[in-house]
Amino acid sequence: MNAKATKTQPSPVIDKAAFKAAVIKHLHCTLGTDENKANNHAWWKATCAAIQEQVLEGLRKTQKSHYLNDTRAVHYFSAEFLMGRLLSNNLQNFGLFDVASGALKELGVEISDILEEEPDMALGNGGLGRLAACFIDSLATMELPAIGYGIHYEHGLFRQEIKSGAQIERPDSWRDYGNPWEICRPESIQEVSLYGYVETKYGDNGRVLKEWHPGSIVKGVPWDIPVVGYEGKTVNVLRLWQSEASDYFNWDVFNAGGYVDAQRENVSAETISKVLYPNDETEAGKELRLIQQYFFCSCSLKDIIRRYKRAHGDDWSRFADQVVIQLNDTHPAISIPELMRILVDRAELGWDEAWGICTKVFAYTNHTLLPEALEKWPARMIEKILPRHLEIIYEINHRFMAEVDKKWPGDNAMKAKLSIIEEGNEKMVRMGHLSVIGSFAVNGVAEMHSRLVKSSLFPEFDELYPGKLTNVTNGITPRRWLKACNPALSKLIDKKIGEDWPRDLDKLQGLAKFASNKTFQKQFMKVKLENKELLAEEIRKSLDIEVDVNAIFDVQIKRLHEYKRQHLALLNIMALYRRILENPDYDMHPRVFVFGAKAAPGYKLAKDIIFAINKVADKINNDPRVNNKIKVAFLPNYRVSLAEKMIPAADVSEQISTAGKEASGTGNMKLALNGAVTIGTLDGANVEIAEEVGDDNIFIFGLTVEEVNELKANGYNPHDYYYKDPEIKAVLDWLETDYFTPGKPGALVSIKQSLLDNGDPYMVLADFRAYSDAQIAVDAAYRDKERWAEMAIINTAKMGKFTSDRSIRDYVERVWKLSPCKIES
Ligand code: Z15
């Protein structure tokens, strides 16, 4: 796949003088300003415009080559793409970073300043959205024909501010001053129908024809974001749909009468792509959300079909050879009945032929086992918005029930269990079941997660469709998550093992033999120290907290969720604080606990945990008795660009979810890649990280999945731990006082309540002692400077498996069956 493995840095396509001229040209001709008047924002835009010339040239060549070769392509359907910033990435991938930086320097501009001008493209919540972004980076790098399809949200994930310790949400307006990367494609506008009713007609020889008379029609306007592969050869696109009112007026519906009033209750066209739902792993079940999903799926399918027909006309026989669609979770699952509708009602294919095509086109990735995240839609809601799709879902289910009956004759309990329809007070459509039934492959995102998908989420489906359920362990792009975000470490690695590692991450293995080399340890830890200085500066600017760069930088960055157990980390911090107050000589290496986390706006306990972290931080950071042994820094507005600053500076990576709950995790991979040592549970991809680095280079603690289940089965009672362990009791009782919230006793009590009265659903108390002891072991290990350096180096050296290139290779071989396409110049 990688014919040029020996080739090193991407060779610059233009030199410094030419780049400088391009920047000036765009300053003048695109921005209408000049070198004297331009501020950083204008310089940023002019630089983007200069590199965009190269990007678009690559895009044109790529599209031409894909067209001429009539390539099979993967279509990655995702409601979220968490792209972050693109300038530094695009410069890196064209090998033009140093060229641009030099050109700008001659113009009196510091590249690091202008990179900071770029707003993050935050069209995602967390892991799932960032995974999609890493995957399209790898797809382009590996020269694979691919397109990402999603929603052009006007507002991405909210901006988080912290006021008096509490999270407040502000709108994210990432496009307010224009986005230099995106290209509007009015020539590819699609129309999407909603609401209305279905008419049954009879065609020739009694064939039943269904005609959907929609109640409204909206326009989908595509915006293309070029996705530049490493070394800049393939430039794929991310196509995002924006909704607009259609001028089309549906007379049918108007004449049918009675619809004018009902129409008022319907979602208006412009609203559809207005805002990203900020819930990570909780389904709100809102009508607008279902419409968002259908909107982008319908636009994308029509776009795919238009492209297919251009090459193959009305011959559907090759559709499944040319098109594979990956469903990123069940969010795009409505694509399955939508494709059936198009094939059966529009193309007038027979049901079996249409179903044969569908089940060769779709593949589905499951990202969670948490019941609150598994999507279910009220049948009545689907009926209102997509009346024809509900009929199709019933038909799919009817035929599926016959299959179930063949396998388990007469077993009605089995039918009820596997049915797409959940019966009850309110009939619900289970999107997970629909996805498994309508796809040819289903994968989990880490070995352990995929095992649990088979053994506890979909065991009967595994029996019914042997081999359909599989694993593809997640990965991260080393271009963004090492080369671009950690230039100092990257250069050190280049010097030591050469420059091939960004596209062949297994090469990092070559560092392992230097792990015990004193000189290399010093160099490696010097880079870490410099990165800690940069983060310390960030903490000072943002929070006015002084931190000691010789302290252990202990980093927990991820969405705020009970299962991720930020409150377990908090309880340990409080316990350490208490130990210091009780014994001023309490022996510990100074530690800075750094947090970044957004809570879903409606998730009360998550917001309470953020508040508690900030209140405990205030107290500890300003208590002279602590003698700077502990600092706590909650950095507001955690996002991709902040992660890029935090990750290179981390000594310790916190991955402490309740075993069985974190499907994979990807922050765990990013931190280890940058030389952080993990303290974590045997959960998600932590298990595979431990396998790679070895037990001596990771701190594993806590209950295993089996132990969690056993404890649950035997009746877990958190009060046992509360009464048995005086430190747990003292720390929980502390939350009830006004010690951390002067004058406001009880302001932090909800955390104690959830852990005691609410049964501690994520077993924080059961794991507390093991966690706290593991932290003591971390402390001891850090004091042995050489031992720690060796561990850090081994972590970087052993992360080869977790490049998203490997994940994509797994998908290509096991699911997509794609071949790379060389781009002709
Ligand atoms: C999300 O970010 C993840 C799963 C979901 O079901 C939703 Cl709705 C959002 C995360 C998992 O929690 C995380 O463990 C995994 O690494 C990530 O998806 C990518 O697979």
Binned, the helix content reads: 40-55%
Span from first to last CA? 19 Å
Question: Helical element count?
Answer: 33
What share of the residues does DSSP label as strand, in percent?
5-15%
What's the number of extended β-strand segments?
A: 25
At the fourth level of CATH, the homologous superfamily of the largest domain is Glycogen Phosphorylase B
Number of domains: 2
Radius of gyration equals: 27 Å
The best one-word shape is globular
Instruction: Please report the first level of CATH classification, the CATH class of the largest domain.
Output: Alpha Beta
What structural class do you assign from the helix and strand content? alpha/beta
Query: Major β-sheet, in short?
Result: 10 strands, mixed
CATH architecture of the largest domain: 3-Layer(aba) Sandwich
Mean pLDDT: 95
Do you know the CATH topology of the largest domain? Rossmann fold
- Can you list the ligands bound to this structure? (1S)-1,5-anhydro-1-(4-chloro-2,5-dihydroxyphenyl)-D-glucitol
Model regions low in confidence, pLDDT < 50 over at least 5 residues: 1-7
